[in-house]
Structure formats: structure tokens, C-alpha cells
Amino acid sequence: MDWFWSFPHLSDDFLRDLRRAIDDSFRTFTRSYGDMLEAFFDPLRIFLIQSERLMLNTPWPIVLLVIAAIAWFASRSIWIVLGSVVTLFLIGMFDMWEDTMRTVSMIFVCTVIAIAVGIPLGILMAKSDRVRNVINPILDVMQTMPSFVYLIPVVMLLGIGRVPGLIAVVIYAIPPIIRLTNLGIRLVDRDVLEAADAFGSSSWQKLKNVQLPLALPTIMAGINQTIMMALAMVVIASMIGVQGLGQPVLRAINNQYFTLGVFNGLAIVGIAIIFDRVSQAYGKRLQKHLEIVHG
Amino acid sequence: MADMRNDHGIEIRGLSKIFGPNAHQLAPLLDQGITKSELNEKHGHVLGLKDINISMSAGCIQVIMGLSGSGKSTLIRHINRLIDPTRGEVLVGSEDVVKMSPRELREFRRHKTAMVFQKFALLPHRNVLENTVYGLEIQGVPRNRQVDAAMHWIERVGLSGFEKSYPNQLSGGMQQRVGLARALSNDAPILLMDEAFSALDPLIRVDMQTILLELQKEIRKTIVFITHDLDEALRLGDRIAILRDGEVIQQGTAQEIVLTPADDYIMSFVEHVNRGKVVQVDTIMTPLHEGQVPQGGVTIMQGTLLEDAAREMLSAGSDRLTVVSADGAPIGSLSLQKLMSAMVRSDKAA
Question: Where is each ABC transporter domain found (chain B) (predicted)?
Fold first, then answer.
């Protein structure tokens, strides 16, 4: 009755050999292809470094002005602009300007890559049920798998530094934009699509003129979610060498510096709120044509 | 000119549509006369259309009438193949739409047809002008020509000054004018109108019918008009086909349908129709025999509706009329009594 009380698992030897075999083959793979992969991701590294250098080397008043201008053009709301400026000003006063700039630069690059990869994937998913059935479970894994688990192979392959951090953040943050692009396109009114067909639109014309514009508000919600999730990953990414607001937090955890943790945590919250309000206000302005209703 | 228009008549031959995964295997059952309900109960497939044969002349308005579920919207979607048929042919000119490749079909839709939809189907993120140019934009016409054509038709449907408005800012009637302008800007010889006016208020609907009839005098397109409203069908249709359960049960001119309904179903429809507005004097007149001299009274042109003829007789105080042909020659006569009895249904006697 032994099998009844404890689960009859595979033999310990077998499991140990299995783990060792997988680890060994992955290590071999890393040794032979690690350099190649690193070279492959090199443009990303350059992009990251350039963007960070730009943020750090630009004098702070200009950065503040540019952010205020972006906030204004995206939201057309004086309150959002004022809120952004005050938040950034406070961050600067508490001597977190440089780390914040590093984090903002990182989030910017992550978002650009998530958009560049995520929107085409979302479109493919919307076009074909088969693609959707393949991608959906992968997204489920990406969203539920603890991020530490995929940090291991990424670090093994690419070492510690900005690029593996970027990849970890993108893996974590990209699902919402893929899902919401797919959803937005699938929700487009069938009558309008039929009209586009009746006028002889090619599938590219249909995508460009009808599906993407009508899905844009949903896609914007996806971009917003992606930015938020990327910010949430900042601390974990700092564990593999990504500089920015995450590192002081990590230091605070290790040494129980309560105040240091709170300050940097609040700074992350502050820029999260700026990103969120500005991108949401922009998404809302895109839907202006829906607001003015007849009668 | 006439020959060119003849190219754009539409000939529908033996068109059938079964909805469901095994449509093609089940198609032979149609020859054995399977009914819609049998097909549904035994095979779980829906019969959309059954052996439709309609010949639509170029430059005329062909109305397809039927209640909901009769297959009329399915039928019109076969003309530009938004729905693929199970079998049959849709000939436009010498081409069979059913056999076109995707590329040919796209070109056909761009240049030969334009469509107006029941729910308007405008692009909500584009203003009136941008919606109107849509068909031409798809065709790749230069922008200034797009705008010229669009502005012309926006003006013709009475929407000048609203070019920059978004569909959401317009009433239903105005939105459908945009739909009409969008279709007309395409300058296609065939205009497909799927219950185009059904979603509008009665008054606005009549208004839109008037606009369409006015425009048709000038554009002379082949118009296929779907409706569930008999009054609309009789007013607009040069020819009318009545559909029930996916089959054509009668087709002909408005007069033919009102005067000789094919069965009780159509009879129940035409019962309440104002015949004075449908039947023409030459249909019920007594033809003149050769050499016979007309008996005087009011002179009425052939093709005049009974109601208009009656009005003229009353105002002239006459109880007879003489029908004359277009060149003024008398061709028949009609008494007031006969005219009145034709207007107030004499079918019970017949």
C-alpha cells in the first residue's frame, strides 16, 4: 500500500540524470551560441546605452521641459502637465534624478520594443485562429511563470547587464499589448468590415483604414498596461544589473534601509502615474470623434 | 451609350445557397425538392436561397422584396460575392462573378459595384468627406479627384456644410445620405442597396426614396434594392421580385404584382396597396379598334397612374378619357366607372 500514501514518482536517479542532461545540453548550447546571441542582441544594447546617455547628458531643465511638452501635446490638460512637473521636481529634490532618468530610459526602450514586437503579433493573432491558439498559451505561461525562472536561462545566455534585463522586462510586459491588439481588431464592427470588403479593400487596406484605427483605443489601453508592467519589473531587473531606481530598492531590502526603500519606491510610483495619466489622456483624445453624439 | 449600359445588366441563374459545413454534399438534394425545414431538421443546414433566376436589366431599379429570413440580404450579397454561392451563376455583362479570382473580384468590387447598407456602416473615425472618398481612395485615384467627386455627391445628397462632421454627429437620415454619397462617388455602374432606407423614420424614408428616384433619372445605374416594405418596392421598382423562404415566388412589374398576385401570400401583401398609385391607365383601358374614332373626354398620356387620371377627370367634369400614346395618337378609352372600380379592388369578382 506504499503507492497509496506517497505519490509513485519517477526514480530519484532518473530525475537527477534528466536534470543534469538538460542542464548540460543547455550549457553546451550557451557555450557554442552565447556569443552569437550576444552579437544578435548587440543593436539592442547600443539602443539602450544611447537612450540612457541621452537622458543623462541632457541638462535637467531641458528634460523637464520636454516631458512637460510631451504631456501637454498628449493630454492637452494643464493639470496633468503640472502634476508631471511637480512629481519630477520632487524626485530631483530628493536626489533621485539620475536613477529616475535611467529607469525612464529603460522603460522607454522596453515599450518601444514591446510595441514593435507586440502589435504585429497581435495582428497575426487576430487574422488567424490557429495563430491565436498557439500564442495564447505562450502568453499565459509568460504572465504566470515567476520572472526569476526565466531570468536563469537569460542570464546564462547573455550574462548580467542591460540586455538580459531588457529581455526579462519585455517578456513580462509584452502580453497585454499582444492580447489587446488582438482583442481590439476582433471587436471591430462586422458591418464596417463588410463595407470595406464591398468597396474592394485589400487586406492591407482593410487593416490600415479600418481595423487598426478602430482598434486603436484598445491598443492604447494595451500600451498603457505594458508600461505599467514594465515599471513593476524594474526592481527584479535590477537584480541582474539593470541600473536605475530598482537598485537602491534592492540595496534597501538587503540592508533594511526603510527610508531609502520608501523614497525610491515612491519615485517609481510617481513616474508610473505620469506615464499612466499621459498615455490614458492621449488614448481618450484619440476617441474624440465618438464623444460628440447627435441629438 | 445604350450598349455600354447593357453590359451591366445582372443575370442570376440557378443560384442556390446552403449554409453549413457540408453544403456542397447536400446541394443535390435541392434537385429532389427538399424544403427549408426538411433540410434544417434532417441535416442541420440552413437553406438560404433555392434556385434563384432573375434577370436584371441595366439602368433599371430591380427591387427584391421579402420579409426577414426570406433570403433577400443573402441574395444581394451574392452579386458582389460577399457570400459565396453553393451553386449557380451571377453574370454581370459576360463575366461570372462566381468564377472570379480574389484579385479579379477585388477589381470588380472596386470598379463595377458600390453598396449602401442598412446600418450605414460608415467609418466612425472619419468625417463625412473622408468617408465619402473611401471607395476612390481604395482604387488609388489621385487625391484631388477623390475630393472633387466626393464634394459633388455630398452636395447632391444635400449634405453641403457637413463635410467635416463625424458620423456620430449626424442623424440616421443624414448618415445614410453619407452612405449614398460614398456609393455614388465610386461611379460604379451597379448600385447595391441592402435595406438602405429601412432603419429610417417613415417621412425621411420617403424623402430618401425621392432623392434616389431623382438621381436615378440622371445616373441610370443598375440598382438592386432590397426592402421588406411593399410600398417602397412599388414606388421604386421598375421590376420587383418577391422572395419567401429563399425562393422567388413572383417577379414582374409593380402593376403585374398588384393586379395578378401569384398566390395568397402575395395577395395578403397587395391587399392594402393604393392601386391608384401603382396601376397605369393603359393597363385597364379598352383598346381602340382600328379605324374607331375616340369618344372624346379628357386626353391622358399612356403610362399615367389611375389616381392622376381620376384627378384630371374630376377637375374637367368629364366621365370619359382617351388614352394617347407618346406621339399623341389615341390608343384607347376608359370610363370613370371602370377607373374607379379598378382603384377600389375588383379582384373578388375576378
Answer: 29-270
